[in-house]
Hints:
This protein is mainly alpha-helical. It folds into 2 domains: 1-90, Ankyrin repeat-containing domain (Serine Threonine Protein Phosphatase 5, Tetratricopeptide repeat, Alpha Horseshoe), CATH 1.25.40.20; 100-186, Alpha Horseshoe (Serine Threonine Protein Phosphatase 5, Tetratricopeptide repeat). Helix content is 55%, strand content 0%. The protein has 12 helices and no strands. It has helices at residues 3-23, 28-31, 34-40, 44-52, 68-72, 78-86, 101-108, 111-119, 134-140, 144-153, 157-162, 171-177. Helix 3 (34-40) packs antiparallel against helix 4 (44-52), helix 6 packs parallel to helix 8 (111-119) and helix 7 (101-108) runs parallel beside helix 9. The longest helix is centred in the first third of the chain and has 21 residues, at 3-23. The N and C termini lie far apart (56 Å).
Amino acid sequence: MSGRRILRRFSSSISDLLTIQKRTNVDENEHGTALHRAVQMGNAVMAQSLLGNKSVWIDEEDGRGRTALHYSMEQDSYEVVEVLVNGGANLDCVDFHGTSACHLACKEGKIDALELMMIHRADPFCVDKSGKTPFDLACEFGKEKMVEYMLLMVDNPALLQHAGEAHKASALHLAARNGHTHVGVP
């Protein structure tokens, strides 16, 4: 396929997403925006184009209170996360469960995404409505490399271990309860 044909097809896809965006404002709260859809497809170029056109608000929430940044944590595209973070996404925005992008990055083991958000001043100590911090989720889901990274990243590791103890279980207890005995927390 020639370069022109690919470019024509790609620009047609962006136009289609923008048209869908305009037609579905009623459904927007439930299913999200064209930016949400581009992110869910893992398409960084399309996300960048939508943000460049100023046709979407980067922190628009869907029906569950999730922004495009939340959905980017579920994708295998660091580029999408980079587009959103560099585009000015609110890094500490939480959904209806109090879950931030940091929570999702730790749960999914996305060290590169967490590191980028930390460079841009995301809060690694935020607590969701269950009383859990991103560190708690890394332990609970057995993300050993994420746990190691977070312990190295902070000056006082005790802060990570005790920030979200409203759920009455330490990060080590959460790891052990879920069979992740290989996750060692000092």
